Amino acid sequence: GENVEQHPSTLSVQEGDSAVIKCTYSDSASNYFPWYKQELGKRPQLIIDIRSNVGEKKDQRIAVTLNKTAKHFSLHITETQPEDSAVYFCAAPGSSNTGKLIFGQGTTLQVKP
Amino acid sequence: DAGVIQSPRHEVTEMGQEVTLRCKPISGHNSLFWYRQTMMRGLELLIYFNNNVPIDDSGMPEDRFSAKMPNASFSTLKIQPSEPRDSAVYFCASSRTGTKYNEQFFGPGTRLTVL
Question: Is CB count within 10 Å lower at the N or C end of chain B?
Fold first, then answer.
């Protein structure tokens, strides 16, 4: 069935350190993997996504890697800053081609100054 | 583009009252999703529509919840009667299925408090 598992549920790092969040998915046909950031009191917003035809994508301090064989993908944030503190959600498509996304449980990232 | 629009932004009501949440998706988007977010259960998909047709309502918690999409630019989520455990933030999101690999855009949410 459709399932996305996300770890860890909470993550605390010192400013300047790196943070890594990992997700696994169950549907081998999944071809699109977005990451959303939700700041306190705000809506989830897309920060980066990766498609199944590439193994890595980078955007400044944020990168995402994808291992289709193992069915897992990860978010990497380097040189973390206090404004990176938020809840991060990974997602993968549902089995039907109707735009449905299956979201992970979320990771609360705290960057300590 | 104004993005996904939701109203009201905040709703406080008493147990037993009917609550109606509204959503206007981004123009041109053909999929619409209703989510509920709480600390305990995280982000839950309640129901979604594709081309105004409900596709999957298995996330709707019980018969007190209903959703409609009478046209491509408007959807409602209704709770009748409301209960304190319905207190949550309700998000509406839309996407254009078939392009950009299903990127979803979220509205600002409606914070519902049932007393």
Answer: N
